[in-house]
Design goal:
With 120 residues, the chain is an all-beta fold. The protein has no helices and eleven strands. Strand 9 and strand 10 form a beta hairpin. The model has no long low-confidence stretch (mean pLDDT 96).
C-alpha cells in the first residue's frame, strides 16, 4: 500500500523560501510520477508540480514556474518541493500525490498534507 508522508510546512514571511519533503513507501515507484497539489482556504485543490520517477520532464503550474522546483532523491524515496520567492497567495495545505503517470493529473494516492502560511 502506498504511503506518502509530507513534512516541512511552516509559517514564513513573503519573499522567503521553504522546502517541503514527502517520504514515499509501500511499493516500487518506477512506473509512477509523484507531485504536489495545494488547497487554499475556500478554494479547490490545484496542481502545483509533478515529476516522473524515472526522471525527465517536470511539469509546473504557471503560478509557480520560476519560483518552485520539484525534485526526487530516489535513494531516500523522498520527493521535495523547493519554494522560493514565496507570496501570501502561496498559503495553502500542500499535498504530496502519486500514481501512474498516465493517471495524472488525477492521482489516486495522497498524503495527509502540510500547512504553508506566507505572511505579507
Amino acid at each position: 500500500q502506498v504511503q506518502l508522508v509530507e513534512s516541512g510546512g511552516r509559517s514564513v514571511q513573503g519573499g522567503g523560501s521553504l522546502r517541503l519533503s514527502c517520504s514515499a513507501s509501500g511499493r516500487a515507484f518506477i512506473e509512477f510520477a509523484l507531485g504536489w497539489f495545494r488547497q487554499a482556504p475556500g478554494k479547490e485543490r490545484e496542481f502545483v508540480a509533478a515529476i516522473p520517477w524515472t526522471g525527465g520532464t517536470t511539469d509546473y503550474a504557471d503560478s509557480v514556474k520560476g519560483r518552485f522546483t520539484i525534485s526526487l532523491d530516489k535513494a531516500k524515496n523522498t520527493l521535495y518541493l523547493q519554494m522560493n520567492s514565496l507570496k501570501p497567495e502561496d498559503t495553502a495545505v500542500y499535498y504530496c500525490a502519486a500514481d501512474l503517470w498516465e493517471n495524472w493529473p488525477q492521482p489516486a494516492y495522497w498524503g495527509q498534507g502540510t500547512q504553508v502560511t506566507v505572511s505579507s
